[in-house]
Amino acid sequence: MSIYYKVVLFQVLIILFPMLVYHLFFNENERDRRKPHSKLTIIQLIILILAMSFPIKFAEGYVYDFRIIPFMISFIYGGTIPGLITWVVLMIYRFIIGGDGFTVVLINYSLTCVLLILTGKKIASFHKKHKLVFISLVFWTNTFIVMLTLFTKNQSSQISFMLIFYTITWVCLMLVVFVIENVNQQMMIREKLQRDEKLNVVSQLAASVAHEVRNPLTSVRGFLQLMSDDNNLQESQKSYIRIALNELEHAQSIINDYLSLAKPNTEELTSINISDEVKKTLALMKSYSNIQNITIETDIQDSLYVKGNRGEMKQLLVNIIKNGIEAMTTEGVLTVRAFEKDGLISIDISDTGKGMTANQIEKLGTPFYTTKEKGTGVGLTISYQLIQAMKGRVNVESEPGIGTTFTIQFPSA
Q1: Could you tell me if 379 and 369 are in contact, meaning their C-beta atoms sit under 8 angstroms apart?
Q2: Radius of gyration of the chain (CA)
Q3: Nearest to residue 65, comparing CAs of 40, 39, 86, 90?
């Protein structure tokens, strides 16, 4: 029996050492992991081959190894394509190894494969705790099927060893999940620090420059307005003044954005009716949408209350709705929904515009990043900052050529 436990320790080493290397030297984000040639997929394939090459042979045709760990990790953290690649390699290598258990392995892993594909998007949205529970349920269901197979094959003598082996396997699986979740957390912290550093630079710039620029702009605007009242001016000259005033308004709007970014007014959060705020904002944007020939469709549940600042809530709604309108050319449809689910107030703002790539979505909210030709990127940065300050969160789903959906969620007040 001691030889079995030596092999078990070797299997543990096969699993944990490559994952430790991955943790120390490779920092892949979620998008990179879903590529077929990602470092995570390559490491899982190496682990799979090594684990199946050095199994425990308990009886003729019955072998034990840690193959289920790279199989599940590829699906859960890599996605459908890396998972299917791992499944195909597993089946081919198991067929080459031979033995009576191939049919059982094929059925068992195929069913697990279908389950992981169907629940892939749901798993990706789970927090670490829920993800651990789900992975454990799938693992022990798989183990239960193996146990039933042993009973039907009159191999009950293996049950005690099988339970010990699979318990060790489960512990290793949990360790691997913790390693990857730790990598995810480090990536998020690093990105947040970089974002906060950029915001800090922009805030300092805004605080030091915006007031100084606003004063001369106010003076210039005042003199231009006085000049426009002069009856001795020609109509062409008055039109030039109107153009100059419009450009000054645009400059003033940008300065206000920078001032909001420097110091968002979210210190006093009160209970506000978000349903009314959404309706008022849509009424405000109605004329702008008509100019752009955009149809606005709404489905707003009444009496939805959140903790927030009324003025800042209006500002972020205007920013995101305006972006949705400007993302469409003509005859587009902007759909706005507001509803409550599971104690969260959700506001969905969907457009039928040009959409965005995954790389563009990832950069949204960072200072100076914009997909518009004449945009500064500050408006969306402010919106993200205000949502976070009001204890909310935002999720963006988009497909190029189809459209974009912004989902803003706040805790119900």
Answers
A1: no
A2: 29
A3: 90
Query: Which residues, listed in sequence order, are joined to residue 336 by a DSSP beta bridge?
Result: 298, 349
Tell me how far apart the alpha carbons of residues 332 and 343 are, in angstroms, rounded to a whole number.
32
Name which of 141, 145, 80 is nearest 113 in CA terms: 80
The two tokens of residue 21 are: 């290397």
Rounded Cα distance, 183 and 12, in Å: 20
Token output for 65: 């190894």
Token pair belonging to 363: 């950069």
The ranges of the chain annotated as CATH 1.10.287 are: 194-262
Residues of the chain with CATH 3.30.565.10: 270-411
Q: Which residues pair with 411 in a beta bridge?
A: 344
The tens digit of pLDDT for each residue in 368-382 reads 666 666 665 667 777
CATH number of 270-411: 3.30.565.10
Rounded to the nearest 5°, which phi and psi values hold at 268?
-105, 100
Maximum distance among all Cα pairs of the chain, rounded to whole angstroms = 108
Q: pLDDT band at 8, cuts 50/70/90? A: confident
Identify the CATH number of the domain defined by range 194-262. 1.10.287
Phi and psi for 29 in degrees, rounded to 5?
Answer: -85, 175
**Integer angstrom CA distances of residue 323 from 77, 329, 356, 372:** 32, 12, 13, 9
pLDDT at 60: 64
pLDDT in tens, 173-202: 998 888 888 878 887 787 777 776 766 666
Pairing relation of β-strands 344-351 and 403-411? antiparallel
- 238: tokens are 């008055």
Strands, E assignment, 234-391: 270-273, 295-300, 305-308, 333-341, 344-351
Ranges assigned E (strand) in 121-274: 270-273
Is pTM beyond 0.70? Reply is no
Closest CA to 348 of 309, 276, 300, 384: 300
Residues 6+ apart with CB under 8 A from 366: 195, 198, 377, 381
Give 13-23 pLDDT, tens digit per residue: 888 888 888 87
CB neighbours of residue 4 within 10 Å: 15
- Region for 9 from its dihedrals, namely left if φ exceeds 0, alpha if ψ lies in -120 to 50, beta otherwise: alpha
